[in-house]
Amino acid sequence: MTTDNSGDVRLSGIGKTYGSFTAVHPLDLTVPQGSFFALLGASGCGKTTTLRMIAGLEEPSSGTVHLGDQDVTRLPPYKRPVNTVFQSYALFPHLDIFENVAFGLRRRGIKSVKKQVEDMLDLVQLGEQARKKPHQLSGGQQQRVAVARALINHPKVLLLDEPLGALDLKLRRQMQLELKRIQTEVGITFIHVTHDQEEAMTMADTVAVMNAGRVEQLGSPSDLYENPQTTFVANFLGTSNLIEAEVDSKSGDRIILKAGGGKLTLPEARCSAPATAGGKVLVGVRPEKISLTHADDAGDIPENRNRISGRIADSSFIGVSTQYVVDSPVCPEFEVYAQNIDRDPRLVPGAEVVLHWNPAHTFGLDAAQD
Ligand code: ATP
Fold first, then answer.
1. Which reaction equations make up its catalytic activity (predicted)?
2. CA nearest 360: which of 273, 291, 268?
3. pLDDT exceeds 50 at position 2
4. Are 258 and 212 in contact (CB under 8 A)?
5. pTM (predicted TM-score)
6. How many CB atoms lie within 10 A of CB 330?
7. Which residue's CA is minimally distant from atom 3 of ligand 1?
8. Which residues pair with 314 in a beta bridge?
């Protein structure tokens, strides 16, 4: 199979400084043609600046932007085969919704636009609103017009800067799936900026997690969730319990660690910290991977599981599962999400418990990082 990479977006050493402030440290990134790529991070981490450098709206302080073989670093935005959907709607106020969406087609001299525009409006659930003016629509509806307008010309790359931010949660979810479906159908590269980890995980094939102007980690949503490499990623994507542990020894492809009075096992492949004997490692495990057993039944727990002891501090019943907070000497406020199948009635605040999990679900982080 040959791979057509003529539409890959390639950033090489691209960086941006404002005076003495570095918004984006020089970074290298390749977004494969046809992928749905998310730049994810908290406000101010540099994701919008990165997107704007791809669009040509921000001049990089260093580095180059390539689209396939073409160096587009010095091209003005309108000469790049990209289109952007902004946080602000930027619709033409004097044109109705139909004409706003039709605009790009008409500018290219296409006469029969009706079917394409109607299909696009149906896609964003605005078929009934075609003859209204932008000011007669809600903010969320206006944002959907902006998405339709940007897509109508089938750009090679669609850049989306928090495009769903104005929508209510239900519509936002619908639009996430809609955008994903559209992207799959048209095969255009989507580069999506968001601070919402769930949104990035739902939509993107690949996510770049940004922090303080740097890409902390790049990977598929499941890889980032299962194998975070830094405490920032571990905590930004979902909840992680982190236990301070000390490397004791190695046994085959497993690292044995001391935590409190006990031992924990960590697959070496899932440890991003240097694991030298006596070194410190932060051992992580996700709340939903943990089982909770009353201390009186601790003898029933299979030998090969990681385990720590604690006392239930709090529990909240949330339907399908119960969320427990467990205080333990090695990790205060350990979070556990347990499915409510055969729930043990003794598991109430104050109960002594053993938390245990399959070592395969453990990850190791560098305790020395900030
Ligand atoms: P948000 O989600 O809030 O839009 P972001 O991650 O997209 O945040 P950027 O907009 O890329 O962040 O900004 C990165 C940093 O660069 C921020 O600290 C911001 O204040 C700063 N910055 C952005 N534009 C300028 C500018 N024109 N002059 C000075 N500093 C700027």
1. ATP + H2O + polyamine-[polyamine-binding protein]Side 1 = ADP + phosphate + polyamineSide 2 + [polyamine-binding protein]Side 1
2. 268
3. no
4. no
5. 0.86
6. 21
7. 43
8. 325
| Structure token pair of residue 350 | 């104050």
Q: What is the whole-number distance in angstroms between the Cα of residue 33 and the centre of ligand 1?
A: 27
Q: Residue 312 — φ and ψ, nearest 5°?
A: -65, 125
What is the C-alpha to C-alpha distance for residues 191 and 158, in angstroms, rounded to an integer? 6
Ligand 1 atom at minimal distance to the Cα of residue 193: 7
Has residue 364 got a pLDDT over 50? yes
- Edge-to-edge, what's the strand order for the sheet holding 306-318? 291-294, 352-357, 306-318, 321-328, 331-339
**What does each C-alpha distance from 192 to 51, 135, 206, 221 come to in angstroms?**
8, 26, 10, 14
Both tokens of 19, joined, read: 């005076």
Class of domain 239-366: mainly beta
d(CA 103, CA 92): 9
Residue 59 is predicted with a pLDDT of 96
Residues with CB under 6 A from ligand 1: 18, 21, 23, 41, 43-49, 195
Q: Which of 259, 345, 316, 256 is nearest to 326 (CA)?
A: 316
Q: Number of H helices and number of E strands within the chain?
A: 8, 20
Give the distance (Å) from ligand 1 centre to CA of residue 24.
Answer: 9
202-220 average pLDDT score: 96
What is the ipTM for the molecules in this complex?
0.93
CATH number of the domain at 9-232, please?
3.40.50.300
Give every CB contact of residue 23 below 8 A, 6+ residues apart in sequence: 16, 17, 46, 49, 213
Asked whether the beta carbons of 218 and 208 are under 8 A apart, the reply is yes
Euclidean distance between CA atoms 274 and 252, whole angstroms: 16
For the chain, the structural domain boundaries read 9-232, 239-366
Pair 65, 73: CB distance under 8 Å: yes
Task: Report the nearest-CA residue for atom 27 of ligand 1.
Answer: 18
Give the pLDDT mean for 258-270: 91
Confidence (pLDDT) at 1? 41
Whole-number pLDDT of residue 340: 64
Contact 192, 207 (CB under 8 A): no
Q: Report the alpha-carbon distance of residue 196 to residue 161 in Å, rounded.
A: 12
Provide the 8-state DSSP code for 296: G
How far apart CA 262 and CA 245 sit, in angstroms, is: 10
How many A from CA of 28 to the centre of ligand 1?
19
